Structure formats: structure tokens, C-alpha cells
Amino acid sequence: MTTMTTTSVLEARGVTMRFGGLTAVRSVDFTVNTGEIVGLIGPNGAGKTTFFNCLTGLYIPTEGTVSYKGTVLPPKPHLVTKAGVARTFQNIRLFANMTVLENVLVGRHTRTKEGLWSALLRGPGFRKAERASEERAMELLGFIGLAHKRDHLARNLPYGEQRKLEIARALASEPGLLLLDEPTAGMNPQETRATEELVFAIRDKGIAVLVIEHDMRFIFNLCDRVAVLVQGEKLIEGTSDVVQADERVIAAYLGEPFEGDPGEAEAAEVTAAEATADATADTPSTTGTPGTTKGDAQ
User: Fold this and answer.
1) How far is CA 172 from the centre of its chain?
2) pLDDT in tens, 242-258
3) How far separated are the first and last CA of the chain, in Å rounded?
4) Cα–chain-centroid distance for residue 137?
């Protein structure tokens, strides 16, 4: 694990998200510093994915602000990506009928300056930019171990490799912060270990990482800090040892009541509200578009 730094990459202040009269996320303060891997955990219906969507512009927070390197992020996913924040999704969103290389090249478009006329005329500037993008895409495929499958269709990759490809596509936008939504969902222990090593390698390249995950062993082995959301509120934040020892965290995961816990009924309402919002506001972004899926909605 890394030594915690004091330079903020991501700063969320007072983030609240309401769906009608239901509050899914309530006044959450959250920070990710340079060189950190930070985990976000919580039981089902805790508001984790809703909070992620607020950070990446898929949802506009009802209250509060989200800043990247001191600048408030615009409430548009492609502009958030252009600013330097990339993400993957709980459900894989690859272009299933495109090749592995083409999927990564899609992630490059926020870092290229060639426009429509340049693409149509295919002049020297366009060809030079195209070569540079392909070289960078191949570097990323080598980084994740998929360079030898550059011409394979994304839909034909094994599940674990599809997860890796989605991470490579996110990295193609040259982010300073990478958000991973349940990156080990559906993986076997060997794939999970490989993902852990990949996240460490990403951090070693100077990219801060924020991870949502239900695999507690993965999170506690990986992260410098862990924050716990329960019923849309941040319950505790600290090192893995501190969070694991907190009785409120244990109670939340075991389903035992604790002071201030609104109970299962509200958790079910939050889950239903998130699902409804996803169905109506699930717009394509730089780092994802509907394709192969696996896993349940948060």
C-alpha cells in the first residue's frame, strides 16, 4: 500500500441525491488523493452506484459539489471524462461487435483533436493522429495482457478479459482518476487476484483509483482507505483495520439494527429508485455503452 498524500484529486462536498421524495445519498463528503486506492463499500441499497453516478456526471446531484483537481466537474459524462475522470461499469458495456483494439480506440476520442472534415478528407494530420492513437491503444493492450487478441471481437473474449478490456478503454482517455464499479463481479479467485495486481499497476502509473466492490477480502487487501455507505450516508472512513473492527459496519453487513438505521423498507425503496433512474437516465458515455452484460443493478 502507498503512503497517503495530501493532494486532492477528487473532492465531493455535501453530495445529496434525491429521487422525488426519496433520498438515496445524503450529505456525503468524500476525498481521493493522488497515489491512493480508495474503496467504497456498503450493503445492497446503500447508494454506492448512485454516488458513483453523481461523481461521473450521469446524475446531477440535488445538492453538493464534485471537484476534480480543484475544478467543479460539469454534469455531463463526456466532459467529466475529458477533464480526467474515467470509469468502468458494474455491468460490462463494451462494443460487442467491435474488435478489442477498436474498443480501446473509442476511449481515445477525448484526447484527439481531429474533427469531422479531417476524418472525411483523411489528410496527413488525421493519419498521424490515427497512428498515434493505435500505438497508444496497443500499449494499453500490452499493459493488460491482451495485445495478442487485438483483432478478436469483444463478445468472444472470456468474461475476465472483457473486464480487463473495459479497464483498458477507460485508461485510453488518459485519466488522473479511475473509478471501478465492482471490477471483480463474477470472477473466480485467480481472475480476482489478477485484477488486484492490475489495479496496483495502474496506481503505480500515477493514477488514483476509487473502487466499489462487494468482495471484502479484495477491498481490504487493495485499498489505502475504505469508506462505508449505509442507507445513503457515510458511516465510517479509515484504514482497512479500522473499518473491519467497527461494530456498526459488522451490524450493517449482518443485517442487524443499529442506532439510526432506517431499516429494510427504506433500503428497498432506494434500490427501486436507483433502478428506475438507471432505466431513464442511462446515457452512453466515453467509457461505456450498452453491450455484453453480467451482474445485477446496484
Assistant:
1) 14
2) 998 898 888 887 665 55
3) 28
4) 20
